[in-house]
Specification:
Length: 290
């Protein structure tokens, strides 16, 4: 039993890295524009299908799909930004409805192009076991966990040290005060959507490398990202990583000790628990960054 629990904790930790990439893109957009992009999960899934196409059509390792995914997903994310920018009245509610509709259209587009079949990587290198003492994982899980940590650290540095990162934080904190400091909120919001597209691209390729994908999975990814954002407290990069790991570990323990049918339920239970006990998230309003 001890070995099973240790393995579940290890698997949940690795899964949390990918969840963090997915959630941080959603959190950045929400922090700058107060818009919950309900099409974000579909952007992640689009990157996963691009990885599938690169592998199945050209016989390349899915990791080579990252440059292609970056271009296509970021352009799609920018298109979503301009559509959301056309919403003038009651922005929070109407953008919610708009992005939900965009998500449905993206799901149906992927269904038409790639059909409803479940897809997974056939790369033997990615699927080979990597053993660390009594713990094991697929090479792809460990590789993309390391990549996730590097990206999160780089993003934290960018938000803390660079001018554009500070501008994004300023708009997130007080849009009107940012204008007085010479910051263009519209351009900053566009940058947040591009960064969200970059994160979604890496997360999608990671998802395809060690999991299975299908067109209906986009909604599930969006819900997971939103749960982690609530767990973290909007805009906190350490909080997003911690919330993602908590969700990954909770799901892994549920699958190991109970049933895989309860995997999605445990995330909603965490979501409701934090809403009732800590509405500002694990890090609270005072310690939010970005």
């Amino acid at each position: 039993m001890t070995e099973l629990i240790s393995q579940a904790l290890y698997s949940g930790l690795l899964q949390g890295g990918s969840y963090a990439l997915i959630a941080l893109g959603l959190a950045l957009v929400f922090g700058t524009m107060k818009v919950i992009n309900l099409a974000h999960g579909e952007l992640v899934l689009l990157a996963a299908y691009i990885a599938y196409t690169v592998e199945s059509s050209y016989g390349l390792n899915p990791i080579f799909a990252i440059p292609v995914a970056l271009v296509i997903v970021c352009l799609t994310s920018v298109a979503v930004y301009f559509l959301v920018g056309m919403v003038k009245g009651d922005r929070e509610l109407n953008s919610l409805i708009l992005t939900y509709g965009i998500g449905i259209m993206l799901s149906n587009a992927m269904l038409l192009i790639w059909k409803a079949d479940v897809r997974s990587s056939s790369s033997s290198w990615f699927q080979e076991a990597f053993v660390v003492g009594p713990l094991f994982s697929m090479r792809s899980e460990l590789l993309f966990f390391a990549i996730s940590v590097v990206i999160l650290v780089a993003l934290w540095w960018w938000l803390s040290r660079s001018w554009y990162g500070r501008a994004l934080r300023a708009v997130s904190s007080n849009r009107d005060a940012a204008k007085l400091m010479g910051i263009a909120p519209a351009y900053t919001e566009l940058v947040s959507f591009v960064v969200a597209g970059v994160l979604a691209s890496f997360a999608g390729v990671a998802l395809y490398s060690y999991g299975v994908i299908q067109p209906a999975y986009g909604n599930v990814l969006t819900v997971k990202a939103f749960i982690i954002t609530v767990l973290a407290g909007v805009g906190s990069i350490p909080g997003v990583l911690l919330g993602a790991v908590l969700l990954g570990v909770a799901e892994a323990l549920t699958v190991t000790l109970a049933s895989s049918a309860l995997q999605e339920l445990v995330g909603m239970m965490l979501f409701l628990l934090v809403l009732f006990v800590m509405p500002s998230g694990l890090f609270g309003a005072v310690r939010r960054r970005g």
